[in-house]
Amino acid sequence: MSKLGLYLHVPFCRQKCFYCDFSSYAGAEHLFVAYTAALCQQIAEQGGLLCNPTVDTVYIGGGTPSLLPVHLMEQIMSALYNNFSINNDAEISMEANPGTVTRAQLTTLKASGINRLSFGVQSFNDDLLARLGRIHRTPDTMTALEYADAAGFNNISIDLMYGLPGQTAAGFARELEQAVALHTSHLSVYGLKLEQGTPFAAAYDQGRLELPDEMSEEAMYDLMVDVLPGKGLLRYEISNFARPGMECRHNLKYWYYQPYLGLGAAAHSFLKGERQSAVAEIEAYIRAIKSGCSPVAMREILTKEQAIGEYIFLALRTTPGMILADFAQRFDIDFFSQFACVFNKLRQQNLLEADSKRIWLTGRGMKFGNIVFASFLTD
Ligand code: SF4
């Protein structure tokens, strides 16, 4: 059986970025201690319930986990080691934002077992950062990376965004060069999406936010795809690039349909074909854990049809694509006996390709993945 991945959610941010609909809250620092206590309690309970399972990846995401005082993060790490069998070579990632880290903090976190950092850089253009509502500027990014280096981290990822208001393809090309020059092991690059309920979506609806047109956005996407592999950052998923061997093992679990347990407010789990998510509101989560109630707010057992659709959709996000033998073994059906018609149509559109072992998205398919995914997902 696959080893377990753990996701821990830290739902605190210094301020909300204008585009963000993640489950994170600003101005909730007074809940740091109570939240950490609840999270440690849930870690202990779940570790016990699952009989101390072996874990080979941990991802501490948010929010901004680096906002949590370091002694509280140490408590969380101790709880993990006390209640789960963490492999010696486990990948233990933590998200961090420039402007929220110190050298001493990162040194302590490295000693606590965290061995991979993912920095929310998003842009190297300070005007764009201000427009996004980010708390940091480029000098903060450079300082954070220096601190991470001094603390001994050699597995560092940065996030970048394109399609930002006021961004041009030429400007994004310069940002890609800046990102590459940092020699990090991993780069995630996402196009801006307008999410309902965010200040950006409201501003756009009111005509106060101008975004790059479709052609410019496509040019930025093409730059990302063309530039990064030539610089040693190979694409292994639609939005993710890594130096060989430095792919994010935790995220690969999501795409290869392996089990993971989410802990904390709003955290999602996928165990034994069941998806769950916890209540998002921080105080509701703390109350549930303290009173011995389940924090689970949503539970869904996937039908075989749903599971097949999800499996295909997730595996196709990766560059190698979906291994046909793995699919047949998991679902006890031959892919082509069920999907020949859909596959042929997508292949004619130069979106999908196959050989005797696997199917994968073409370069065009990666760009227009949503067309492919919609063909396989049931609803
Ligand atoms: S730092 Fe990240 S999680 Fe926090 S508000 Fe900004 S985008 Fe959202």
Brief synopsis:
The protein has 379 residues and is an alpha/beta fold. The chain has helices at residues 32-49, 70-83, 103-112, 126-132, 138-150, 169-181, 199-205, 214-230, 249-255, 282-290, 304-316, 324-331, 335-348, 363-367, 369-376, and strands at 4-10, 12-13, 25-26, 54-62, 85-96, 116-122, 156-162, 186-191, 234-237, 240-242, 260-263, 268-271, 274-278, 296-301, 322-323, 352-354, 358-361.
Structure description:
The structure is a single chain. With 379 residues, this protein is an alpha/beta fold. The chain folds into 2 domains: 4-255, Aldolase class I (TIM Barrel, Alpha-Beta Barrel), CATH 3.20.20.70; 304-376, Arc Repressor Mutant, subunit A, CATH 1.10.10. Helices cover 43% and strands 23% of the residues. The chain has helices at residues 32-49, 70-83, 103-112, 126-132, 138-150, 169-181, 199-205, 214-230, 249-255, 282-290, 304-316, 324-331, 335-348, 363-367, 369-376; strands at residues 4-10, 12-13, 25-26, 54-62, 85-96, 116-122, 156-162, 186-191, 234-237, 240-242, 260-263, 268-271, 274-278, 296-301, 322-323, 352-354, 358-361. The chain has a 9-stranded mixed sheet, with helices on both faces. Strands 12-13-14 form a 3-stranded antiparallel sheet, with no helix packed on it. Helix 1 runs parallel beside helix 2. The longest helix is centred in the N-terminal third of the chain and has 18 residues, at 32-49. The radius of gyration is 21 Å and the shape is globular. The relative contact order is 0.11. The mean pLDDT is 97.
